[in-house]
Amino acid sequence: MSLLKELCKKVFTKSIWVYHANSGGCNGCDIEVLNVLTPYYDAERFGIRLVGSPRHADVMLCQGPASRPTAKALRRAYEAMAAPKLVFAIGSCACGGGIWYDTYNVIGPVEKVIPVHFYIPGCPPRPEAIIFGVAVALGLVEKKVSPVTFKQLEMPIARYHPEDLIEKDGMVVYQRMDHV
Amino acid sequence: MSLLSKAKEAVLCLKAGVVTLPYPAEAEPVPQGFRGRPVFDAAKCIGCAGCANNCPAREILLFDRSQEVRVLRYLGRRCTYCGRCADVCPEKAITMSTEFETATNDIKDLRQEIEIFMGTCQRCGRCFKEPGPLEALMMKGYRKDDIGSERWVYRSQSYLDDEPTVRDIEIELD
After folding, report:
1. Most distant CA pair in chain A: distance in Å?
2. Which domain holds residue A18?
3. Residue A157 falls within a domain, yes or no?
4. A91, A128, B110, B146: which sits with the fewest CB atoms below 10 Å from its CB?
5. Residue A105, domain member (yes or no)
6. By C-alpha distance, which of B33, B130, B50, B41 is closest to B85?
7. Chain B touched by A112 (CB under 8 Å)
8. Rounded to an integer, what distance in angstroms lies between the CA atom of residue A74 and that of residue A113?
């Protein structure tokens, strides 16, 4: 990964040209990506420019899950890009398949069809989140998320023992009530 | 004439000022009611699986290692941040944070996992979820009728509380 980062620093010193591939999304992420290019977020000050052909592009922005009719076209668009190339998966659909990840028409996340280097989750991600993802890819900032695992090591309450139930005065009473 | 109109346009453009947000340099505040990624509070979680049963993307997975150990895993990769898990959580262990800078190069970074001990319920083992707006319209679950004046209250419990559980209505009003 560090090799890729070094390569990024060398290759993308001036500007990255992005190609915008939608393989069956709902257009929500498309609109957010176009929002990044508006004067409000103005991605062109970082040299990010939208190009119309994958042959001109350094980075492919994938939106939408890989669906059965579009998977082949997505693969061809990826192969048409000149190396070194990066693929960004933008949105929940491209990262994990979206809500309809197991539908008959959806193959799954785009990483099942093409290799994905960076993930920007969100439904849709904010324009700031997309800019942050590009900054992470270029090595300008560190990523902020890490997996969280919590494990309880001992039982927080005393265990209930049914064998301690005794009958007293016509009622069922727990013998070790004061211990619980 | 055209030179004059161009000069006029230049004046207009200079008057408009700079609209570009200084996002990467300084932090951008999120709008009111923004839902970022959910954060699971392991200290409050009771492992009732209400979130897993209500997740539309079915990405909160449960695995019972034994009768008393339950593993709850949030994948995070296909989460749509709908907030349904936070709505149904009876212990309010899930909060929708305003965190959106979750871009990563490894999808497993988004994972949250809780492994807790379970007490076996002596009666039913079921969990009750709070009524959402649709359930309230269907008049199921708990109701709080006006006992004092002996009349129906044709509303859900969530509207009677001080803290409404439904945030989507506020977002639509904005």
Report:
1. 88
2. 2-138
3. no
4. B146
5. yes
6. B50
7. no
8. 8
Interface A–B counts its CB contacts (< 8 A) at 139
Q: How many Cα atoms occupy the beta-carbon half-sphere of A122 within 13 Å?
A: 30
Whole-number pLDDT of residue B159: 44
**B105 vs A119: CB contact, 8 Å cut-off?**
yes
Asked if residue B158 has pLDDT above 50, the reply is no
User: Is the CB of A40 less than 8 angstroms away from the CB of B42?
Assistant: no
pLDDT in tens, B135-148: 555 654 456 666 77
Mutate to test the interface with B, among A86, A145, A157, A174 (most CBs of B within 10 A): A145
pTM of the predicted model as reported, rounded to 2 decimal places: 0.73
Separation between Cα atoms, residue A124 and residue A155, nearest integer Å: 40
> Residues A105, A106, A108, CA angle at the centre, nearest 5°?
160
CATH, residue A111: 3.40.50.12280
Say how far residue A166 (Cα) sits from the centre of its chain.
56
The answer to the question of residue A53 being in a domain is: yes
pLDDT above 70 for B15: yes
Which residue is listed with tokens 């190069």? B105
Measured between CA atoms, the residue of chain A closest to residue B45 is A150
What amino acid occupies position A65? Answer: P
* Nearest-neighbour CA in chain B from A142: distance (Å): 9
In a domain, A61, yes or no: yes
What are the structural domains of chain B?
30-129 (3.30.70.3270), 130-163 (no CATH)
Over residues A86-142, the pLDDT tens digits come to 899 999 999 888 888 888 888 888 988 999 999 999 888 988 898 888 888 877 788
Share above pLDDT 90 across residues of chain B, in percent, rounded to a whole number: 6
| Structural element, H or E, at residue A51 | strand A49-51
